[in-house]
Structure formats: C-alpha cells, structure tokens
Write a structure and sequence with these properties.
Layout: H1 2-7, H2 11-22, H3 24-31, H4 60-71, E1 74-79, E2 82-87, H5 90-99, E3 106-107, H6 111-117, H7 127-146, H8 149-166, H9 176-192, H10 201-217, H11 220-227, H12 236-261, H13 271-284, H14 294-325, H15 327-340, H16 355-368, E4 377-378, E5 383-385, E6 388-390, E7 395-398, H17 400-404, H18 447-464, E8 465-468, E9 482-483, E10 489-490, E11 496-499
Parallel strand pairs: 2-7
Antiparallel strand pairs: 1-2, 3-4, 4-7, 5-6, 8-11, 9-10
Helix pairs in contact: 8-9, 8-18, 9-10, 9-14, 10-12, 12-14, 14-15, 14-16, 14-18
Length: 501
C-alpha cells in the first residue's frame, strides 16, 4: 500500500505522509537557526516541507526563475529540510562559476546518483577522484579527436542514420528511437570501439533500459527520495534504478575484459584503451595511481554513457524540429551547404566556412536549453557572495535558463533567431552569455563532442533531406513546448524526411 502511495503522482500526499513520520518540530528548528541571518533571502519555508508546495516540478527552472524576480539573483529555497541557493542571471552565474570557481566548484550529488555512482567516475564525484579522472577524460577524448577517430565514428553513424530515414520514403515518422540508437552508438564507439546495427537486440535492449531509467528518474517517487532519503527502502523505482545500473556495470565489465585481452600498446581504439595504456605507463614508472583501477574505469565509462547519449539525442531532436518549424532557416543552411560543401561528405573543418550554419547551431544550443539548472554544484568552503553568507557544503543551482534567456543579454530571448550570432557582415560573433554547457571547472565534459556531433549530424542530414511537418500540420502548429525530465526534451512529434536527390 505504501509503495502504491509513493508511486502516485500526488506529491502533496507524499509530503503529508513524510511530515507525519518525521515530526515537524525537529526540522523547524533548522530553519530558525541564527546561522541564517545573513543567508540569501527567499520564500518562507514550511516545517519539513520547505518550499515544495510553492514549486512546480514539471518546470522547476521556470518556478525558480519566477522566484528570482521577487527575491533577487541570489536566493534560498528549501527542498524539504535541504537548503539550496539558487543563482539567477548571467552576471551572477558567471561570478560564481568562473570568478569564484574554487568556492562553488564541488558537485552536489543527489541520493539516487550517489547510489548509482558511489562517489566514483567523472560527473558525480569530488575530491581526488574528480581531480584525477576529469583531466584524464578530457585528455583521452582530445586524443581520440586528434587521431581523427571521433569524427570518423560520427560520420559513420550519419550514414547509418540517413539509411534509416530513407526507409520511410518521405512519410511521417517519429525519429526518437532511431536517434537514441545513433547517440548510444557514438558513445559506444568512442568508449568501447564498437557500434551496433539498429536492429541488433543488444542495442534495442540498451535503448529500452535507458528509456526505463529516464522514466524512473523523473518519477515523483524518486524526486521524493532525493528530498527525503529515508524513504529509500520503500521505493521500488529506486531499487529498479540501482538494479539497472548494476546490469549496465556488469555489461561494461565484460566488454572491458575483452578489450584488455586484445589490447595492443601504442594502438588506441577507444577510451578504454587510453585508460589501460595510461595505467600501464604509471605502473612502469612506479607512480602511485590509486584512482586508475577497474572500478573507477567502469564508472567513468558509465558516466560517458549517462551524459553523452541523452544530451546528444535531444539536441538532434530539437534541431530537426526547429528546421521543420522554420523552413526559411532550413533553406539558408542548405544553400550554404550547397555553396561551401556541395555533395561531398561534410567535415569538421567546413564549419569555419559556414558562419550561418554555425549561428544556427549556436542558437539551437541556446534555445533548446536541455539542462536548465546545470548539474547541481556545492560550496567547497564558507563563502561570502554578493554580501550573503553561504555555508560550506550548501547545494547551489546555477539557473542556466536565467542565463540563456536573460533579457539583459539577449534581445527577444524566447524567439528562435540565429541572426543574433551574426554581425552586419554575416560573420559569427561570440556572446558572453552563451553558456549552454555551463562554465568554470565543472563545465560539461563532452562540450567538444556535443558540438561536433550536432554539426555533423545536422549538416549531413540536411544534405540529403528536407524536413517538413507531417501532412495536415502547418509550421505554426509545430509545438516547441519542452517536456521536463532528466533533460528538457521536445514534445513528441513526427516529421517527414523528403529526399532531395
């Protein structure tokens, strides 16, 4: 019975139950501590519940953005008894993440991601683990890019995606599952050196598992678990997520074992090879390498999958939807493609000769805003910020929605307008408030990969197809309302991919 209650969508019922079990008076004292006298302002919290009843979890970023209009660019909200400081607006976010990056540079890890990652990996780690694993990951990914492996893997997947789209013969279809296959294949190719045919049962099972994990992560019960961790033993979705993560971990261990058996020193095939070769060099040099172990490797690989697949899939989904929504913009990209590239394969170096296309890509990254609150940060020490005291260990939300749609930085920010990134001569211009990948020491690990993927996928597809709404639907009727989940993704849609040749 309790499990059924936890799985329901009525968050108020969950909160009332939690309140009865914990006791309101114990938490209320935390809200009234003298320590908070210099803390950032914010709405008055209720005992135990904090500000949960004042927030819309379907679009939490918008709820927080609205609160910033009342309480300022630095304010406090309570998720249950958990204190969170929210940073809003480009100048405030930049000050924290760039100018004071050491103060705000730790990662706040929610209970469910702590259960899955256990302090290992790249994204959800701190301390020596993060200090060693992130620089190595950046170096390894750059090495693969320098060797040309990254571009070749993406181009190979572009060809497969084109073949898949051609099977629909210009008829309307939902591209979600196909794009999920492509995104997983890119990460699989870079981490393990292997890809799968779209019909392969192994790949289809990976897509199914990812969809199930995403569904669990955005569920009410997991949101409540992250706020009230003591609920953990009662939540089936938590058990399923941990079990699913363990299955993926075991699969990765088997693949890594195969790669160890076939490793050729000096010949890199993928990220795992880079890790194993680097570890071998450390061992030969008798350098202490506590972080370069098999457990760490598995979690780093899983982090690459966790962050690299869902973001890539959704950026491509947004880009195709926007091309169908704005046919004149699609026309201009295709005209530039014909003039600069023709019908040969697009390459990464072509981008610098295609300023309009580059502007379109920048605007897609900005407008899609797929990680609207970034991945939460945590203060590494007591901080005085804009006159407010923020205690060490406080969770911080850098509100990227408030940056990418900051009206003081962007003209008509809610309009999709690539021209904002072009000067009067049609050359690309840089915008300081363009921070779709966050900023500072915790900037997105895969920014370079994400930019390359979107460029090669979109241009390769637009060389071959014109994307239009399905029959009976006009461009104006194409819905750009995002759906909140692990990331902001487009509402379900169908498109027609009409062959140009």
């Amino acid at each position: 019975m309790f499990e059924d209650l936890l799985q329901s969508s009525t968050s108020v019922s969950l909160l009332v139950v939690a309140g009865v079990l914990l006791g309101l008076h114990l938490v209320y004292s935390a809200f009234c501590s003298k320590e908070n006298t210099r803390a950032p302002p914010g709405p008055k919290p209720l005992p135990l519940l904090g500000n949960l009843l004042q927030l819309d979890f379907k679009r939490l970023d918008i709820s927080l953005l609205n609160l910033s209009k009342k309480y300022g660019s630095v304010f406090t909200v309570y998720f249950g008894s958990k204190k969170v400081v929210v940073l809003a607006g480009y100048k405030t976010v930049k000050q924290a993440l760039v100018d004071q990056d050491e103060d705000f540079g730790e990662r706040s890890v929610s209970p469910i991601f702590n259960d899955i990652n256990k302090g290992y990996g790249i994204v959800f780690s701190n301390g020596i683990t993060w200090q060693e694993m992130k620089p190595f990951a950046l170096t390894a990914l750059r090495s693969l890019e320098t060797k040309g492996l990254t571009e070749e893997k993406i181009i190979e997947e572009c060809h497969q995606l084109i073949k898949s789209f051609q099977q629909y013969n210009g008829k309307a279809f939902d591209n979600s599952r196909t794009l999920a296959c492509a995104a997983i294949n890119i990460i699989s190719a870079l981490t393990f050196g292997r890809r799968y045919e779209y019909t392969d049962p192994v790949l289809q099972a990976m897509v199914d598992q990812d969809l199930l994990s995403i569904s669990h992560l955005k569920s009410t019960s997991i949101q409540m678990y992250n706020i009230f961790p003591w609920l953990g033993p009662f939540i089936k979705n938590r058990r399923d997520l941990v079990k699913g993560a363990e299955i993926k971990k075991e699969e990765s261990e088997r693949i890594i074992a195969d790669l160890k058996e076939t490793l050729i020193p000096g010949k890199t095939r993928c990220y795992v090879d880079e890790f194993l070769i680097h570890r071998s060099k450390l061992e030969e040099s008798e350098i202490r390498h506590s972080q370069y172990n098999d457990v760490s490797l598995v979690h780093c690989v899983r982090n690459l999958f966790q962050t690299g697949t869902i973001t890539a899939e959704n950026k491509i989904k947004w880009s195709l939807l926007l091309m169908a929504k704005y046919p004149r913009i699609q026309d201009q990209v295709q005209e530039e493609l014909r003039r600069v590239v023709g019908r040969r394969q697009v390459r990464v170096w072509d981008r610098k000769y295609m300023p309009y296309t580059d502007a379109v890509l920048h605007e897609i990254h900005r407008f899609a805003n797929i990680i609207p609150m970034a991945v939460p940060h945590r203060t590494s020490r007591d901080v005085t910020f804009q006159g407010y005291f923020i205690k060490k260990g406080t969770t911080v939300f850098p509100l990227l929605t408030s940056v990418l749609f900051d009206e003081s930085e962007w003209e008509n920010p809610h309009t999709f307008n690539p021209s904002r990134f072009l000067d009067k001569d049609g050359k690309l211009i840089r915008k300081d408030a363009f921070l779709p990948f966050s900023a500072g020491r915790r900037v997105c690990l895969g920014e370079g990969l994400a930019r390359m993927e979107l460029f090669l996928f979109l241009t390769s597809l637009l060389q071959q197809f014109r994307f239009t709404p399905p029959p009976g639907v006009t461009e104006d009727e194409m819905d750009l309302t995002p759906v909140a989940g692990v990331v902001l993704h487009p509402s379900p849609y169908e498109l027609c991919a009409v062959n140009l040749y």
